[in-house]
Amino acid sequence: MASTIETLADSDSYEEAALAENGTKPSIESGKLYAQLAKHFEDFRGKNHLVLCLGTPDPDAISSALALQFLGKTYEIDTTVASFVGVSHHENRALVKRLGINLVRCDSDFDISQFDMYSIVDSQKCVTDLDARLQEHNVQFFAFVDHHREDTQTPPALFVDVRPDYASTAAIFCEYLQLANPSGLSPSDPVQVQLATALMHGLRSDTSRFLSATQHEYAGAAFLAPCVDTQVIEVIERKVLTPSMLDMFENALVNRRIHDNFIFSDVGYVRAVDRDAIPQAAELLLSRDGTDTVLVFGIVDEKAIDGSLRTRSETINPDEFLKGVLGVSPESGRYYGGGNIRDRGGFQIPLGFFSMHEDKNQVYTMARQVIEKSFLDYIGKAGSKKRKNSANTA
Ligand SMILES: [Mn+2]
Questions:
Q1: In this structure, what is the dihedral angle of CA atoms 185, 188, 189, 190, given to the nearest 10 degrees?
Q2: Cα 206 to averaged position of ligand 1 atoms, centre (Å)
Q3: Which domain holds residue 372?
């Protein structure tokens, strides 16, 4: 009897060990995708590559771009990582500085004639402000890798890998790295330590420190772990609040309007360097007991309304929600906002013509009314005017 139990226990633990090992290996599908990417890399051997982080560059985007740069090196591809906006969030600035990442700013006089190919990582959009110039210089759209839902348009890149069931793009790149380096990254190579540390921070920051991670992020983390400089991550993640961020939090608290489990608020006119405090203000309000969804906006550099949605609702899908609330811009034909399917989203609405209005307060009131009305219409509360006026600020 005892021996049967022992045998069973042995075989169970053996199977578990085998499962655990398989669980951290990229899937066959993933292997096929990486083989495609490697083939495209081979076709572009020795070329110059531009990797674009659209929007405000976050750790997931920055680390994914670094991973693509690293993978390209095997094929003697020289990669420049660029973004259109400066890095603003304290954590992201610390990431770039601590790890000595060379992130080039893509402005109107940025020379793109030196590049043969370009890629976009960690963005739902495949259209950029550079498109006309990229076409003019015959820079080929090489790769598009992302974890958000596919936009209305399929990216016209040579290689496309969109995995909405992943919580981060960094986890997709961890699989590519594992496929390219089955024995792991090297802890004695500073470049590989830098890459692993950036990716670990990317995995952590897109998943609220692994709280909303999928098995893919855990598998990625297991692969990176031996090579990660945890002290650097500790320094990068240290919370620092500037006086202007505290002012924005104060505005968000004072201006909050509560509609059952929703909070709608705004932080006023803010500078571009402080825009990342908008999602942080939304997170602060989300911690109020009884609230499951928060929408906060501000006007950035007097040019555009910039907003963030945070939710822990069982039913709200941020991507659908923001697309439903704000719709499509008649000028660009693109959605004003979008997000993931679980807990977060964002939107930008250019003020355009109205930004020239002298009375800034009036512009602000107008923006607030329009957004709040769309929001209330969408959640089915606009009809009850009484309720709207009596919205409390508890
Ligand atoms: Mn991401």
A1: 110
A2: 6
A3: 243-389
Nearest residue to 226 via CA among 185, 194, 179, 198: 185
Distance CA 205, CA 343 (A): 13
- Strand, helix or coil for residue 385: helix
Give pLDDT tens digits for 186-198: 999 999 999 999 9
Answer yes or no: do 340 and 324 share one domain: yes
2 within a domain of the structure (yes/no)? no
Half-sphere exposure of 359 (CA within 13 A, CB side): 6
Burial label for 348, CB within 10 Å (0-12, 13-18, 19+), is middle
Q: From the CA of 6, how far away is ligand 1's center (Å)?
A: 46
pTM of the shown model: 0.71
| Helix, strand, coil abundance in the chain, percent, nearest 5 | 45, 20, 35
Tell me which of 3-12, 101-110, 325-334 is least confident: 3-12
Distance 19 CA to ligand 1 centre (A): 28
Q: What length does the chain have?
A: 394
DSSP secondary structure letter of residue 328: B
CA distance 188 to 179: 20
Same domain (yes/no): 263, 370: yes
Domain total in the chain = 2
Q: Is residue 5 part of a domain?
A: no
CA of 62 to the centre of ligand 1 (A): 10
CA 376 / ligand 1 centre spacing (Å): 28
| Residue 357: both structure tokens together | 């209005």
Mark which of 237, 257, 280 sits at the end of a domain.
Answer: 237
Q: How far is the CA of 147 from the centre of ligand 1 (A)?
A: 6
Q: Are residues 227 and 252 in the same domain?
A: no
> Distance, CA 345 to ligand 1 centroid (Å)?
11
Least confident of 79-88, 233-242, 314-323, 383-392: 383-392
> Which residue type, as a one-letter code, is found at position 149?
R
